[in-house]
Amino acid sequence: MALKREYKFYVKASPDGRGLGDCPFTHRANIGLKAKGVTDVSLVLIDLSNKPEWYKKLNPAGSVPALQYDDEIITDSYKILEYLDETYPEPPLNPPNNKEAEEATGQIFGAFSAWIKNTDDSKDSELKEAFEAELEKINNYMGRHSWSMLCSDSWSFADCVLAPRLYHIQTVAEDFKGYTRLNEYYNLKQYMDTVFLSEEFVSTCYPREYILKGWAKYRK
């Protein structure tokens, strides 16, 4: 019998304070909750620009997401995923090939961020090439397997992490750089089409304009 617990899930609030904000770390943990079918969850919206004193006492780091049950609180998104997989074993989020998937996909967000945040025009081409090398690595990894997702046809830790990152990458690259080449990576495009339409992703998503607002200070 599945363990019954009531949870409070502390998340970044949207700019209007009424819904989910654009945090990819919150998004990954939220996808994990949905993938595990955990439904007894109360969302608590946190304004990160004006954190409540009670939240800073509960979580001195003031970070989101945080998952609370009974007197326990988990304040790291990946540890939340690990907790969920240990507490609710089915369906598993950590299959044997998850590490391989994480190695193939783990550098993409850093490469993308370096390109977007760069202020030296002389380095732009080099950073763009490094970003595209990571795209190619992911595309090649996906091409070696027939699954619809990274490790199987179900969510894994690696998928929970990658999907929100790709959502940010696609949104910001198109708007800031006019970059639309993601669609040229066939296997990656197929993957994005799958995860972006999944119930777990759609039900935990936030509008693209929130992402653009969050990245606005890096726009040239």
UniProtKB/TrEMBL annotation:
Residues 13-92 form the GST N-terminal domain. Signal peptide: none annotated. Transmembrane segments: none annotated. One of its GO terms (cellular component) is cytoplasm. Gene3D superfamilies: 1.20.1050.10, Glutaredoxin (3.40.30.10). SUPFAM superfamilies: GST C-terminal domain-like, Thioredoxin-like. One of its GO terms (molecular function) is chloride channel activity. This is GST N-terminal domain-containing protein. It comes from Amphimedon queenslandica. The gene is 100640996.
